[in-house]
Specification:
By secondary structure, this protein is an alpha+beta fold. It has two domains: about 5-115, PAS domain (Beta-Lactamase); about 115-185, Winged helix-like DNA-binding domain superfamily/Winged helix DNA-binding domain (Arc Repressor Mutant, subunit A), CATH 1.10.10. About 45% of the residues lie in helices and about 20% in strands. Strands 2-1-5-4-3 form a five-stranded antiparallel β-sheet. Helix 4 (about 115-125) packs across helix 5, helix 5 packs across helix 8 (about 175-185) and helix 6 crosses helix 7. The relative contact order is 0.10.
Length: about 190
């Protein structure tokens, strides 16, 4: 879902379409906000992180966004902060869109998330089934085959065969390479 109606009218239709084609499916979550802390644009990664199909920032971010906008305009430079809720911690890098504008670009990465958020992010980014993404998330957390089996309530042999198939889907041969793929998507170690 594109939110071109909320971008400044000074941007031509062709420029909007070009902008969306580049930004919409990138793995980096991007949000463009105005001086009133309203989201003018959110790409698909940002809508997924904020669980907002309509492209609006959730209410819990209001104070964070207002504060980071003020800091960016005061410093006229980029600002990096961590925002936390009960189930997710985000790393937010804010920078002015361009000199002389009130627009601020937020780059958002999940630093720590609950099991469900990790699995959803991996599934979307690597085009995996949710069960494969959950398995990869458990690998990323550093669990052994025995711990994974206990977590999933299956036998260790089942975990081994599922891991073999997961490695094939990811195009890797070993556990460390699969964990590295997850870390690339999630942006950090567990």
């Amino acid at each position: 879902m594109l939110h071109s109606r909320r971008l400044p009218s000074s941007i031509s239709t062709n420029a909007r379409e070009f902008l969306f084609s580049i930004l919409e499916d990138t793995e980096i979550a991007l949000v463009v906000v105005n001086a009133e802390a309203e989201a003018l644009y959110m790409n698909s990664s940002a809508r997924s992180i904020f669980q907002s199909d309509a492209g609006f920032l959730p209410a819990w971010t209001d104070e964070h966004v207002k504060a980071i906008i003020e800091k960016v305009h005061t410093a006229d430079n980029q600002i990096v902060e961590r925002w936390s809720t009960s189930d997710v911690t985000l790393r937010v890098r804010a920078r002015p869109h361009s000199p002389g504008t009130a627009l601020v670009v937020l780059e958002v990465r999940v630093v720590h998330a609950g099991t469900r958020q990790v699995a959803e992010n991996l599934a979307r980014s690597l085009r995996l089934s949710i069960s494969d993404a959950r398995l990869l998330g458990l690998l990323w957390r550093g669990m052994s085959n025995e711990e994974i089996a206990g977590n999933l309530n299956v036998r260790v042999g089942t975990v081994k065969s599922r891991l073999f198939r997961l490695y094939q889907r990811l195009g890797v041969k070993r556990r460390p390479a699969a964990v590295l793929r997850a870390a690339e998507v999630l942006g950090t170690a567990p």
